[in-house]
Automatic annotation (TrEMBL):
SUPFAM superfamilies per the UniProt record, alphabetical: Nucleotide-diphospho-sugar transferases
Record key words, sorted: Transferase
Residue span(s) of domain Glycosyltransferase 2-like: 8-121
Official protein name in the record: Glycosyl transferase, group 2 family
GO MF: transferase activity
Keyword Transmembrane helix: no
Native source species: Citrifermentans bremense
Domain of life of the organism encoding this protein: Bacteria
Keyword set includes Transferase: yes
Length: 337
């Protein structure tokens, strides 16, 4: 057993300079951690580097070796299987963490046990100023709670080792009551991973992964909601909670609302609930034709988008065919059955 707070798993295949930089920043900025380095048949210079670091860290390190490059996801799973700490982190060997990168993640996890997958602020990546639920984690750097891992295990090695594998992991987490959250932290820098293999093989793997994902979880839908004047921010918050439930099943929601209500929603933290729930303020002084064009532009960007009136009994202003909010809720409920 180990008394480490977190086990950090780092799959490695060559790239000794990047690997050294990654491990040095991790060792310097991740107190209370044990480092599980999974060497996937690296060449001698990388192999020697890992051995030297493991020797210097003593019981703070575990070095595992394979004779060949088994791939990032299988290596990550091997590291997970050897972990014992309350939290598990997965970090690519090209990632550079910053001081205090981990503390906000563990603090958030302690206050929100449903947050089974946690991401730091990543560069490159989207702005990260408030906690936000995401559709997937990132292999650049992510933290997984022990309880989530106990429930669902590791990643599906039959998928693409990228976005669809990560989306699948989040959906499996959702099915057990856990969510994926990005938390404001000092920035963690990473490089976009170079894809190995022929383009045709990568395309076939991605197509297979998409088909498998949709077979398991279905295909999400796209909606545009209109919120009329007079709706209070408390009621808006209740409605957005329903949309977050739908977003966890891959639905996308764009919410058109009065500018004053949007401002109140921003102040209440309702604009960062989920990456697939987007609030769009209607122009204050625009005439109805301009607002209609805004709706049509949003709908044209996502073919098949369904209009929804956010308040039952009030017609959707720019389409004769639309759902009431109650009908939308029934659709969301059906996805959970």
């Amino acid at each position: 057993m180990t008394d480490a707070t977190i086990d950090v798993i780092i799959p490695v295949w060559n790239r000794p300079d990047e690997t050294r930089n990654c491990l040095v920043t991790l060792i310097n900025h991740t107190p209370g951690a044990r480092f599980i380095m999974v060497d996937c048949g690296s060449e001698r210079d990388t192999e020697r580097l890992l051995q030297e670091l493991a020797d210097s860290l003593d019981d703070r390190a575990l070095l595992m070796r394979d004779d060949s490059n088994i791939g990032f996801v299988p290596a990550a799973n091997r590291g997970f299987e050897s972990s014992e700490a309350p939290y598990l982190a997965l970090v690519r060997n090209t990632t550079l963490v910053s001081p205090k990168w981990l503390e906000p993640l563990l603090a958030y996890a302690g206050e929100h046990p449903e947050a089974g997958i946690l991401l730091p602020c990543l560069d490159p990546g989207e702005e990260c100023s408030a906690p936000k639920e995401l559709e997937r984690g990132s292999f650049a750097a992510m933290v997984v709670s022990r309880e989530l891992y106990r429930r669902i295990g590791g990643f599906d090695e039959g998928m693409d080792g990228g976005a669809w594998c990560l989306k699948d992991y989040t959906r499996r987490a959702n099915a057990h009551g856990f969510i994926t959250v990005q938390v404001p932290t000092p920035v963690v820098h990473h490089q976009e991973e170079v894809q190995l293999g022929s383009e045709q093989r990568r395309r076939e793997t991605q197509q297979r992964s998409i088909a498998l994902f949709r077979e398991r979880w279905g295909v999400g839908a796209s909606y545009v909601l209109h919120v009329p004047k007079g709706v209070e921010v408390e009621l808006l918050g209740e409605k957005l909670e329903w949309l977050v439930k739908g977003a966890r099943h891959d639905d996308r929601y764009t919410v058109l609302l009065p500018a004053s209500l949007n401002q109140a929603a921003q102040q209440a933290g309702l604009a960062t609930l989920h990456e697939h729930v987007t609030l769009v303020p209607l122009p204050r002084l625009a005439w109805d034709g301009m607002k209609k064009r805004l709706f049509e532009k949003i709908a044209s960007e996502k073919p098949g988008t369904t209009p929804v009136t956010a308040v039952d009994g009030i017609p959707f202003p720019w389409s004769d065919r639309y759902l009431s909010f109650s009908e939308l809720c029934e659709r969301i409920k059906a996805r959970y059955q």
